[in-house]
Amino acid sequence: MKLKTSSLLIAGALFGAAVLPAQANNEAMMDLLKVLRDQGTITEANYDLLTNAAKADKESTEATKAKVAKVEKDANKVKITTKGKLKFEGEDWSFQPIGRVMWDAIDTDEDSSGADDFQGTELRRARLGFQGKIYDWGYKFEGDFANGDTSIKDANISYDTKLKGMKAGFKLGQSHIGYGLNTKISSKYMTFMDRPLFADSNLSPARESGVVASLAEKDYKWALVTSLTNGTLDGGSTEDNGSTFAARGSFLPYKKDKTHLVQIGAGFLTKGANNDKFSYKQRLVSHKDHKKWLDTNVAEHDGSNAYTLDALGIYGPFHAMAEYNDYTIEAKNAKDVDTTGYAVELGYFITGESIKWKKGYLSGITPKS
C-alpha cells in the first residue's frame, strides 16, 4: 500500500513535535498546517479550526509555566532568621516559635513569720508557643508549664491596618488588657526579677479573654488602647461572671529620638460584680516565701474601679519609671476597700547602652559588645 505525501508529512510532523520542547512543538504544528492548507489537503475552515486550537494550547502552556515560575519564585523568597531568634518569613506570611525559661535560686530568712526558711530553686517561667502573621492578620499562642500544669498566657488573633495615617488594630482572644504600665512590660525586659507588688495581680490585671482595640499615631507619640474582657482562660474557658472594661492612653511631651524621651500615661478600669469573692494576696520576695504578708478578702461586692498614673523617661544610658495604682472594691455589707500602691525604678547602664522604647513600653537592651 502506498502512503500519500500528505500522510507522510503529517506523520513526520507529529513525530517531530513529540520529541521537541513545547514551544517548538507548537511552531512545528503551525508550519505543518500551513503546508497542508497550501496543498489543498485541508480546507481553510479546518485550518482556522486547527490553528485556533494550537494557539489555545500554546496559551495554556505559557500560563502553566508562569504559575510554576511564580511558585518557584515565592519558594525562593522564604527568609529564615537565626540571629537572636528563629523566624520564617514569606512574602505575605511569617511563623516564629517563641518561649522562655526563667529559673530562680532562692534563700529566704522568714525572721518572725513563724515559717521555716527556704533555700532552693524555682522554675518561675517555662513558656512555649508560636506567633506570626498571614497578610494583615496576626496570631499568637503561648502556654506556661512552670507549675506542672499548663496555663494559657496568650491565645489570640489580631488585625492591624492604617486609618488616615494612624495605626489601628484589634485582638480577639486572650491578651493583655488596656491597663497599666508595669503589668504590660514583658518579663523578658524587666529590670528587676519581680514586678511591683500591685502589678500583674487582681489590683492591676494582666491578661483576660475578650476583645482589645488600639489606635496610635504612626510613631506612637500618642496611643490609645481599650478592652472589654471577661476573666482569664482556665482549662480552655472563663468562669468569671464580671466583665472588665479598661482603657489606657499615653503621649510623649518630649521626644528627641528613641533614646531621649519622656512619656506620660494614665489608665482606668471598672469591673462588674461576680459570684466570686475578691482576694489579693502577695508574698514579699519570692513565690517560695511561706508567709503572705499582704492578704485582703472581700466576701461580697458590687464591683470595683481602678485608675493608674505613670511616667517613663529615657535619656541615653539613664532611664526612670514610676507608676501609681488605686483600686477600690465596692463592698456590699461593709465599707469600700481602697488599696493603693506605687513603684519607682531608676536605672543606668555604665557601658553606655540605652534601654529600648517600643510602642509605649520598655523593650530590653542590645549590648554594645
Would you kindly provide a written description of the structure presented here, covering whatever features stand out?
This protein has 369 residues and is α+β, with helices and mostly antiparallel strands. Helix content is 18%, strand content 46%. The protein has helices spanning 5-19, 22-38, 44-76; strands at 79-81, 87-89, 93-108, 118-134, 137-144, 151-163, 166-176, 207-217, 222-229, 244-257, 260-271, 278-282, 294-298, 301-315, 318-331, 337-348, 357-358, 361-362. The strands form three sheets. The chain has a 14-stranded antiparallel beta sheet, with no helix packed on it. It has a two-stranded antiparallel sheet with strand order 12-13. It has a two-stranded antiparallel sheet with strand order 17-18. Helix 1 (5-19) runs antiparallel to helix 2 (22-38). The protein is elongated, with a radius of gyration of 33 Å.
Order of strands in the sheet with the most strands? 1-2-3-4-5-6-7-8-9-10-11-14-15-16
> What is the total tally of β strands?
18
Structural class: alpha+beta
CATH architecture of the largest domain: Beta Barrel
Q: How many distinct helices? A: 3
Could you report the average pLDDT, rounded to the nearest whole number? 83
Uncertain segments of ≥5 residues (pLDDT<50)?
1-20
Rg, alpha carbons: 33 Å
Name of the CATH first level of the largest domain = Mainly Beta
Strand content: over 45%
Instruction: Please identify which CATH superfamily of the largest domain we are dealing with.
Output: Porin
Total of domains: 2
Helix share bin:
10-25%
CATH topology of the largest domain: Porin
Cα distance spanning the termini: 90 Å
Sketch the topology as an H/E string, one letter per element. Answer: HHHEEEEEEEEEEEEEEEEEE
Main beta sheet: 14 strands, antiparallel
Identify the overall geometry.
Answer: elongated
